[in-house]
Amino acid sequence: MKLKGKVTIVTGAGSGIGKASAGVFAEEGALVVVVDWNKEAGAQTAETIRQAGGEATYCYADVSNAQDAEAMVNTAVERYGRLDVLFNNAAIQIMAKLADTEEDVWDRIQRVNLKGVFLGCKYAIPAMIRNGGGSIINMASVLGFVGDPDLAAYCAAKGGVIALTKAGALGYGPQGVRINCICPGDVDTPLAQEYFQKDADPERLRQEISSKYALRRIAGPREVAQMAVFLASDASSFVTGSTMVIDGGLTVKCY
Ligand SMILES: NC(=O)c1ccc[n+]([C@@H]2O[C@H](COP(=O)([O-])OP(=O)(O)OC[C@H]3O[C@@H](n4cnc5c(N)ncnc54)[C@H](O)[C@@H]3O)[C@@H](O)[C@H]2O)c1
């Protein structure tokens, strides 16, 4: 029970890494506010946690909307009395090379993937300070520090998340708020599966991508969730401003 009694918000918890994280957080004793703009999926995650004996409440929010972001923090405080942990995990992925990226697509990606993280931090930090501190985990990606020609706007947003994490860690460390980010390589979720499905031969593409990893496979969502648990827990009490790479050895090689 690494997170016993910790009040935790997980955004994008209706699917993939967020869903797995909400489940693992609850298994570790956290009281979880499950946030997603997909009401059915978010409510289902909360229900699954409760059926397994954990504690969870679903809260609708579009993380790119300031009122929703503030309301999600208020929900945690009103329902459970305080806020200890925020996992800013929600994001969208739209493929396009730089010059082919429509302005609207650029704006949508920055709104959800970067502004959404900013808004989560903006409203969670004061609530955490009132409670003596807390831990924020921002979801970045290896694409925040290496490029993908077909995901230009996504790469830019994830790079922004890494920089925002460092600025925030410096700003609020003195008040006991730790802020770190996670940089996974490919993770086997609907988002990654959609990417594979765009290829004429999805299974071949999956094999090809897996072969680039030192571990010769992509991650499972629970493996990423375990990194989030570490950063949320007191086991990481001296870790802040860090960029935690969890990529099976993808980005350590040159050739
Ligand atoms: N899957 C990968 O290969 C991979 C790799 C690196 C980083 N990531 C990052 O991990 C995070 C989770 O990705 P995933 O693969 O689990 O994706 P996913 O698509 O399976 O799940 C994302 C969830 O976020 C929700 N969501 C999206 N926009 C939202 C918004 N504005 N407000 C509220 N909810 C919203 C969706 O409804 C969905 O339930 C993302 O930040 C993604 O960029 C994923």
Short description:
The chain has helices spanning 16-27, 39-51, 66-80, 103-130, 152-172, 190-197, 202-210, 221-232, and strands spanning 7-11, 31-36, 55-60, 85-88, 134-139, 177-184, 243-246.
CATH class of the largest domain: Alpha Beta
Main beta sheet: 7 strands, parallel
Structural class: alpha/beta
Second-tier CATH architecture of the largest domain = 3-Layer(aba) Sandwich
- What fold name goes in the CATH topology slot of the largest domain? Rossmann fold
Head-to-tail CA distance between termini: 42 Å
Question: What features would you describe in this structure?
Answer:
By secondary structure, this protein is of the alpha/beta class. The chain folds into two domains: 7-184 and 220-242, NAD(P)-binding Rossmann-like Domain (Rossmann fold), CATH 3.40.50.720; 188-218, no CATH class. It is built from eight helices and seven strands; from the N terminus they run βαβαβαβαβαβαααβ. It has helices at 16-27, 39-51, 66-80, 103-130, 152-172, 190-197, 202-210, 221-232, and strands at residues 7-11, 31-36, 55-60, 85-88, 134-139, 177-184, 243-246. It has a seven-stranded parallel sheet with strand order 3-2-1-4-5-6-7, sandwiched between helices. β2 (31-36), α2 and β3 form a beta-alpha-beta unit. The mean pLDDT is 98. The site of nicotinamide-adenine-dinucleotide has 30 residues, from α1, α4 and α6. Residues 11-12, 14-18, 36-38, 41, 61-64, 89-92, 112, 116, 139, 141, 184, 186-187, 189-192 line the site of nicotinamide-adenine-dinucleotide.
